[in-house]
């Protein structure tokens, strides 16, 4: 391979690596500053809970259960044995 091609590839890889490191450092600094601001807000007013987790990802609220309550059916011993046989048959692939 010619020397100028090797030199340009090495230089390009070096520049690309430096840009990636600079972006990662900037992102880490940005997240760290944001985390510090969130802590200050909660210290000033302890009743206020932060809307974001410490690492900056928004918190997803829990889902409200809106359907009917879950149902349970008691099986007789014979039904339970038949169910075990059925599951075994399905697991064997017959």
How does this structure look, described?
This protein is an all-alpha fold and 94 residues long. It has helices at residues 3-44, 77-92. The longest helix has 42 residues, at 3-44.
Provide the descriptors you would attach to this structure in a database record:
single chain, 94 residues, mainly alpha, 2 helices
Category from helices, strands and their pairing: mainly alpha
Pattern of helices and strands: HH
Mean pLDDT: 78
- Proportion of residues in β-strands: under 5%
Number of strands: 0
Number of helices: 2
Q: Label the overall shape.
A: elongated
Distance between the amino and carboxyl termini: 62 Å
Helix coverage percent: 55-70%
Poorly predicted runs of 5 or more residues: none
Give the radius of gyration: 30 Å
Biggest sheet overview: none
């Amino acid at each position: 391979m010619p020397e100028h091609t090797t030199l340009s590839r090495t230089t390009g890889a070096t520049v690309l690596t430096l840009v990636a490191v600079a972006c990662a450092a900037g992102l880490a600094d940005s997240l760290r500053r944001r985390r510090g601001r969130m802590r200050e807000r909660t210290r000033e007013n302890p009743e206020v809970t932060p809307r974001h987790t410490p690492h900056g990802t928004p918190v997803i609220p829990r889902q409200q259960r809106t359907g009917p309550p879950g149902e349970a059916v008691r099986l007789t011993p014979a039904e339970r044995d038949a169910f075990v046989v059925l599951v075994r048959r399905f697991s064997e692939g017959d």
